[in-house]
Amino acid sequence: MNGAAHVAVRDFALDYGTGSQRMAAVQDLSLEVKPGEFVSLIGPSGCGKSTVLNALAGFMQPTRGLVQVDGAEIRGPSPDRGMVFQQYSLFPWMTVRQNVEFGLKMKGIGATERQRTARTLLSLAGVLAFENRYPDALSGGMKQRVGIVRALATGPRVLLMDEPFGALDSQTRAIMQSILLELWEASRISVLFVTHDIDEAIFLSDRIYVMTARPGRIKAELAVPLERPRTPDLAGSAGFLQLRSQLRELIREESLKAMGHEVGAVPADQRFGQDLAAVAPP
Amino acid sequence: MHGTLGNLPAVTAALAPQRARRAVPWATLRMLALGLASIALFLLAWHLLTTHRVVAHVRFTNVPTPQAVLARAALAFRDPQFQMNLLISCRRIGSGFLLATALGVPLGMLMGRWRLVREAVLPALELLRPIPAIAWVPISIMLWPTNEESIVFITFLGSFFPILLNTLLGMQGVDPILVRAARCLGAREAALFREIYLPAVLPQVFTGLAVGMGVAWVSLIAAEMIAGQYGIGYFTWEAYSLVSYADIVLGMACIGALGLLSSALVRLAARLAMPWNRAA
């Protein structure tokens, strides 16, 4: 591992579409991730969280503003910035280990060293027993563990995570969060974690950014002063509960705003079903 | 044809000891029994219709009996001339089909990857595609200096379009998340093609190969009948001209068997090339 990077997004804006269809997804957004920091980005569905992450990954160019890693503008995807997707993204034609070795192979690293790195990481994530299986044979949680391991294998300086546990049931999700923290403690690289799950954001992060409804901006920034290493029983502590109610209130406001905005401004047949589902529980 | 029939009891025998101890696989037994009965019934009908030279609008007067065909087959398979006919047809299928694969798969992938290539190439191909390969026979004879080349060209044309279009279709179905994941891991264009697009498109490629193999045989036999010297299609047509009726049916049976064999080869290749694919 070659250290952790400093991520900076300044006055970032990104528009979708052209002409009269043009729509601002994100506007005047600024955030940073300090080297070695675990930062979450949370907000109502459709607020542009993933847009920010995609720009950092190098898949999208900002319409305005700066997207930098260690002061250098991002020009395209790079193994320096590992990405974990919400959808399962393992290559079905490669075994678990071949998946993990892929990034190293692209770097031109020899087979023996590739195998050693892959096996070490797989065993840290508890999936070494499945190294020779195809992804098809794995459960959702295992697939995502392999996905994280694959992103870490190239020794990235930042890890970008786009709701990686969104498709998992709550039991598996809790286990995955602990595994992620263990893996992160071992490498201490910078992480930007996108989620809409409040508990998840608190449990994992050093700092949490809350986004507004579309067009997305930063609404609030909260430090998470809970000590590490964190265990699941943390969820009952006073500090955790206080942060949770604070975050709930912030996100509820935005979800209602998003809904009101949609109901008022968009014809019924153009509304996104997922946005309606995003209204926070009472 | 005969070979396939002969194998069936052997298959049943091989399955029997393993299966007998578990719950009786009635469905499997029934399927095998009905399958054998169906084939036996067909042979019986053929036998009766031809030995009694039935004429009921359709005329079986000159159609050879199964026994006559079997007797001819026993002789023909020892005849070097007949063996050469089979060999030459296989060689033509092989060259035409491999050529179509070697051109169709890469072209389909390039067209799927770059819109510009697709927009430049597809219109011309769409213009030619509806013309059946058989309709190319006269022009093909004029185009190519040797008869052999023109027949291989017809076979190539028959399989080229299904292979190309299925590859193109497969490219459009490649999951963009996999491409993004690969790019995040440092894959550049060449690596994307080799490591992502090619394996991702393989299931569709093999669908194209299976269809292409079928059309290749249709085109080959037609071309051999019209323009051939040698080849199993030529043999079958010549048998008609020479009034050796048993040879006509022998030719047909060989064409069927070779078609079956080549389809099986494509399926085998698919299984070997895609060990991760349970459906293959």
For the biggest sheet of chain A, the summary is: 6 strands, mixed
Unreliable residue runs of chain B: 1-20
Second CATH tier, the architecture of chain A = 3-Layer(aba) Sandwich
Q: Which regions of chain A have little confidence, pLDDT < 50, spanning 5+ residues?
A: 266-282
Q: Estimate the mean pLDDT confidence of chain A.
A: 88
Share in β-strands of chain B: under 5%
Report the structural category of chain B.
mainly alpha
Order of helices and strands of chain A: EEEHEEEHHHEHEHEEHH
Continuous helix count of chain B = 11
Average per-residue pLDDT of chain B, rounded, comes to 90
The run of helices and strands of chain B is: HHEEHHHHHHHHH
The whole-angstrom Rg of chain B is 23 Å
Q: Hey, roughly how much beta strand do the residues of chain A contain?
A: 15-25%
CATH class of chain A equals Alpha Beta
Number of strands of chain B: 2
Key descriptive features of the protein:
heterodimer; A: 282 residues; alpha/beta; Rossmann fold; six-stranded mixed beta sheet; four-stranded antiparallel beta sheet; 8 helices; 37% helix; globular; disordered C terminus; B: 280 residues; mainly alpha; MetI-like fold; 2 domains; two-stranded antiparallel ribbon; 2 strands; disordered N terminus
Short description, anyone?
The complex is a heterodimer of chains A (282) and B (280). Chain A is an alpha/beta fold and 282 residues long.
